[in-house]
Amino acid sequence: MDTARRALWIAALIVICCSCGGRSAGRDKVAGPLDASDQCVLVLADDWDSTGGVLRLFERSWTGSWKAVGPEAPVFLGRKGLGWGRGLHPEQPGEPRKAEGDGRAPAGVFALGPAFGRAPMEPPLKAMPFLVADSETICVDDSVSSHYNTVFQADQVPVRNWDSFEHMLRTDARYDLGLLVGHNPPPVAPEGGSCIFMHLYSDPPLPTSGCTSLPRPDMERLLRRLDAGRRPVLAQLPRAEYNRFKEAWNLP
């Protein structure tokens, strides 16, 4: 692997695993999960068991208010709906909770990016790093592995200590374009859920194993708008939880 490509995959691990910092520095208030971000991909579902929802991108203006950008897009969620995940938001005590293999997509607020896919977009993205997957690019979903919930090049790891993983270069088109979702960041919770992405619809379109899928035109539009420098996040919630946390988390 060339040096530039290795650096991109290292950046992927950093971004998917780390929380946003600092917009609220110096404020006399509890930091919120969106304080450091100026772009929010908001996904709303009717309830915890919904397998579909609606996505819309919002951007924060210099006044601090959120403004919708572009049209709404339909999404599919997990085949069992949603469950509280681990991300930028405070840990939630209630149920349901996201767990490995449960078929639920994570609810909460999560860092987004880099983008990934089978081949670079044309013209290339200007504001979001893009990781090109090959036959050695994997995401480990083996909870006892030290590589659990990480995306990396398997041929660059001297000791393979995992029994289960997912190829990022799939035989279908679902991962032809996508975004890494920073769910279950370090310290990683064993069995807390892994390999969560935003990716393309299946064919035919169906609920996912725990990711968020959308049509290709909407994915392309989203990727061209997202800017890594604005620290984009995914806020994904049932509508009742959105209404409950809207003010406290300063949701769009």
Rounded mean pLDDT is 91
Number of domains: 1
Provide the succession of SSEs.
HEEEEEEEEEEEEHEH
The radius of gyration over CA amounts to 17 Å
Distance between the termini: 41 Å
Shape: globular
Return residue spans where pLDDT drops below 50 for at least 5 consecutive residues: 13-28
The beta-strand count equals 13
The fraction of residues assigned to DSSP E strands is 25-35%
Give a quick account of the main beta sheet: strands, pairing sense, barrel closure. Answer: 10 strands, mixed
Q: What structural class results from the helix and strand content?
A: alpha/beta
Helix content percent band: 10-25%
User: How many helices in DSSP terms?
Assistant: 3
Could you outline the blueprint of secondary structure elements for this entry?
Elements (H helix, E strand, L loop, with lengths): L2 H15 L21 E7 L6 E9 L5 E11 L5 E3 L20 E13 L12 E3 L4 E4 L10 E3 L11 E3 L9 E5 L15 E4 L11 E3 L1 H10 L7 E6 H7 L7
